[in-house]
Amino acid sequence: MKIEQIYTGCLAEAAYYIESKGEAAIIDPLREVESYLKKAEKDNATIKYIFETHFHADFVSGHIDLAQKSGAKIIYGPTADTTFESYIAVDHEVFQLGEITITALHTPGHTPESTTYLLKDKDGKPYCIFSGDTLFIGDVGRPDLAQQGALTMEDMAATLYDSLHSKILNLPDEVLVYPAHGAGSACGKHMSKETFDTLGNQKQVNYALKAETKEQFVKEVTEGILPPPQYFAKNASLNKHGYISVDQVYEKGLNPLSPEDFEDLANQTHALLLDTRDPQVFGDAFIPSSVNIGLNGQFAPWVGSLITDMHQPILLIVEEGKEQEALTRLARVGYDNTIGYLKGGIQAWKAAGKDLESIQSISAAAFAATLQEQPALNVLDVRKPGEFETEHFNYAHSKPLDYINDWTTDVKPQETYYIHCAGGYRSMIAASILKARGVDKVINIAGGYAAMKNNAIL
Question: What is the per-residue burial (b if ≥16 Cβ within 10 Å, else e) of 325-341?
């Protein structure tokens, strides 16, 4: 028996490859599926099942492409309803995989169809669970994403409590817990950086599992939940109803364009100009009206959170050789409408003599000096609300990047704004969006809150 966790840091997502005696199963695959096919080929195994724990909201799963390329059967838990061919398991249904078995345990609460898969070894002993978004390491799934009819998130949380106590917590303590996400995912509040644990340890340390009553569980699980990113509902719909092949995304998007063709296409299509270079490199010189979301951060979740039109054409400005990576990571969250990229990158644009803009960045020390001379500066802290509440500067205004589409109307284009986040990644995103929307005087504080604190800016 082989179990491999395939963890993708940008999405804080875990897929799983399981193999026994020449038969393989994939749990919660990502959009690009070649790596799973290669693993099975290396093991001389046939992919028999694709198990989906639920309709994912934070990424587009690769179940449809993988089924078409491998011939495997897509399995969902009870109450799931898809518009593509799938097999809907009944509660406690057992699937044979080589010498082992995988049992579908219906565990609604995060979503109505959420299902945990219990793997038993060749001797029939419970070995691990693939808990999806039902149980995380240090947390449980948020109960507000799939409310139906008159059901509230409190109702879903109560259902989640029942699922945990009737299906999971009665398993042996030594059973391993393999969740679908880790720290950084918006699918929970307090997820650990650890990506697996024993069930027994989770009973001791997971705040939700330590709740003494259902009422306490509901209160603690629903308290302080922030609104989900706008792309969550769209991704869930794609996972339920289907999508184009990722191969088609590559075919359309891997379209190299000269500066002249890039400019013409941008004007014709009103495409979003998405620059994926590192923040400081972007700030030095960029194409007017382009927005910076760096590939070296949580690129896909920020794209999904900030770009509200999933069908808007996208033109990419990337470092040479990063074109396919950018397309892949866009496709993971359902942004499939990239129509080309700037061949030769920003250097080609410069060589063609095209217009460029820049965003000024100043050091924390330079900002401190400016603040002493001008105490009434407009300072925007674009960290998350929880970060701001934990610690912030009194002169800063909390303007979370997550909600920039709501608060840009409060910004006055004629004024100057100093922007910071924790380290500089998010502040440049915010600055580029404001600049593209006509706020010309934006200044990025390099190094963010950490550098400002080190310079004793109080």
Answer: ebbbbbbbbbbbbbbbb
Tell me if 75 sits within 8 A of 113, measured CB to CB. Answer: no
- Domains of the chain in sequence order: 2-234 (3.60.15.10), 244-351 (3.40.250.10), 360-454 (3.40.250.10)
Residues 6+ apart with CB under 8 A from 166: none
Which amino acid is located at 279 in the chain?
A: P
pTM confidence score: 0.93
Q: Are 208 and 139 in contact (CB under 8 A)?
A: yes
Between CA 149 and CA 129 the distance in angstroms is 30
- pLDDT at residue 291 is higher than 80: yes
* DSSP percent split of the chain into helix, strand, coil, nearest 5: 35, 20, 45
396 forms bridges with which residues in the sheet? Answer: 379
Tens digit of pLDDT for each residue in 403-449? 999 999 999 999 999 999 999 999 999 999 999 999 999 999 999 99
Q: How many CB atoms lie within 10 A of CB 174?
A: 13
